């Protein structure tokens, strides 16, 4: 098992390039199931979640090969085993996004129910309801979702909103299934995250007929078949946001390449209110801080609101603010494993239901800490960059799920992170 030793405090400066988006890549990889033949995807990040997804597609019958740095070839000529085994799904719950495309391609799919995870229960009732609305028969057997539509799916008007707003992967599943359904589907209260827009653009490049992309109302005219695609995924807005916080928390200055600020306005606006300078520059931006960290109140929301996937990183930053901040998690109210770990580093955080009251402290102090989920782990790395002394972060595999060798990106900027296998 790998651990990080992080020596702080440091001041970061230099230029860093953002990788392709993990959360766009995963459903786009699943979308290739819909089109027999060879698809070629560019800017697919080299992450453990992507490897798991490749393994999963391989189990279904696809041939998955890394062609070069960032390019992935998926040959979906044969998809003859429409089963997502528990063994793989338990390692990555995003595996659920094969359910819709498998059902549309094969008329049947069996996918293990993903369990909960460190950030909460993670139900899939909305995925199931949406696919049922398209005519699928769905039941649960031995922990597997069995979905059947031997005579194909039929377009319908579907409302996809849930108690916590729209669902990203639920929208992805129904959208992918609807591309091959007979007639017209309208998805109301669709997730409008940039990753869903990217998926819809990719599906259109495969021959789908989707309009309303980027809005809460997706309209899909079903087509007979889709063709393989060459497609490049968008930059990872969460990795970009993590680098922005890295610049801010270390009072540094970073040029962040391959970053679409338009996808990140809520985070950028919050940074500016905190006293961080964010300036557009070519295909990226320059982020710097010279003054004190000001307080901010953050509430996570579906896009275009403040993303839950940056909540932990911003909490690390606000823990050094000049006063009290409140962070409210509205998407995953239990996403707070980082709170206790940051407190071990001398932060002063108090959880009250889905809210965390962040009382700013003058400095963070290194400690041994435990990575619990992907974004919580990123928050610990950020805190460690600013903390006095050597922080040891255990269970680094969580970080590797969503960040391409984060230490190799941060060390050339002045970070002192060593990876050790213990
Ligand atoms: N929800 C339901 N029923 C459902 C599905 C979701 O009630 O059937 C609830 C969830 O419990 C949650 C809310 O709806 O309260 C939103 O969940 P959503 O379905 O949008 O999450 P997801 O699609 O499973 C994706 C990202 C997450 C990100 C969330 C929210 C991928 C692979 N995962 O998950 O990313 O936090 O959207 O933006 O796209 C991460 O990258 O670290 C990560 C966890």
Please give a structural write-up.
The structure is a single chain. With 422 residues, the chain is an alpha/beta fold. It folds into 2 domains: 2-19 and 235-421, Enolpyruvate transferase domain (UDP-n-acetylglucosamine1-carboxyvinyl-transferase, Chain), CATH 3.65.10; 22-229, Alpha-beta prism (UDP-n-acetylglucosamine1-carboxyvinyl-transferase, Chain), CATH 3.65.10.10. It contains 14 helices and 24 strands. The chain has helices at 22-31, 48-60, 86-89, 99-106, 125-133, 168-179, 194-205, 237-249, 265-274, 311-318, 337-344, 374-386, 397-400, 406-410; strands spanning 2-8, 13-17, 38-42, 63-68, 71-75, 83-84, 108-112, 137-141, 144-148, 157-159, 184-188, 209-211, 217-221, 230-232, 253-257, 277-281, 284-288, 297-299, 324-328, 348-352, 355-359, 368-370, 389-394, 416-421. The strands form 6 sheets. Strands 22-23-1-24 form a 4-stranded mixed β-sheet, covered by helices on one side. The model has no long low-confidence stretch (mean pLDDT 96). The protein binds uridine-diphosphate-2(N-acetylglucosaminyl) butyric acid. Residues 23, 26, 94, 122-127, 162-164, 167-170, 191, 195, 308-309, 331-332, 374-375, 402 line the site of uridine-diphosphate-2(N-acetylglucosaminyl) butyric acid.
């Amino acid at each position: 098992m790998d651990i990080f030793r992080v020596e702080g405090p440091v001041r970061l400066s230099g230029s860093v390039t953002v990788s392709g988006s993990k959360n766009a890549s995963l459903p786009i990889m699943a979308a290739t199931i819909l089109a027999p033949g060879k698809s070629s995807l560019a800017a697919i990040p080299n992450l453990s979640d992507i490897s798991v997804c490749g393994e999963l597609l391989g189990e279904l019958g696809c041939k998955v090969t890394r062609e070069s740095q960032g390019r992935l070839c998926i040959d979906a000529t044969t998809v003859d085993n429409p089963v997502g085994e528990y063994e793989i799904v338990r390692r990555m719950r995003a595996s659920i996004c094969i359910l819709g495309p498998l059902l549309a391609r094969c008329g049947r799919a069996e996918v293990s129910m993903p369990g909960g995870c460190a950030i909460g229960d993670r139900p899939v009732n909305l995925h199931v309801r949406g696919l049922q609305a398209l005519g699928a028969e769905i039941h649960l057997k031995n922990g597997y979702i069995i979905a059947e539509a031997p005579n194909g799916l039929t377009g319908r008007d579907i409302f996809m909103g849930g108690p916590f707003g729209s669902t990203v992967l639920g929208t992805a599943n129904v959208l992918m299934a609807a591309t091959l359904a007979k007639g017209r589907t309208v998805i109301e209260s669709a997730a409008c995250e940039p990753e869903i827009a990217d998926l819809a653009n990719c599906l259109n490049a495969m021959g789908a007929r989707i309009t309303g992309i980027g809005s809460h109302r997706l309209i899909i005219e079903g087509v007979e078949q889709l063709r393989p695609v060459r497609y490049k995924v968008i930059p990872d807005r969460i990795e970009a946001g993590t680098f922005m916080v890295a610049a801010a928390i270390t009072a540094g200055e970073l040029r962040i390449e391959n970053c679409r600020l338009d996808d990140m306005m809520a985070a950028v606006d919050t940074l500016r209110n905190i006293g961080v300078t964010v300036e557009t520059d070519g295909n990226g931006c320059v982020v710097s801080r010279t003054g004190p960290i000001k307080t901010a109140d953050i509430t996570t929301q579906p896009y275009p609101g403040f993303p839950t996937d940056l909540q932990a990183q911003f909490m690390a930053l606000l823990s050094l603010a000049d006063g009290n901040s409140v962070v409210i998690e509205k998407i995953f109210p239990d996403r707070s494993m980082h709170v206790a770990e940051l407190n071990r580093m001398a932060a002063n955080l108090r959880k009250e239901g889905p809210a965390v009251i962040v009382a700013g402290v003058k400095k963070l102090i290194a400690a041994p800490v435990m990575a619990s989920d992907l974004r919580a782990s990123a928050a610990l790395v950020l805190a460690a960059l600013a903390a006095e002394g050597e922080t040891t972060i255990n269970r680094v595999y969580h970080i590797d799920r969503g960040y391409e060798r984060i230490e190799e990106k941060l060390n050339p900027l002045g970070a002192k992170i060593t990876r050790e296998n213990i």
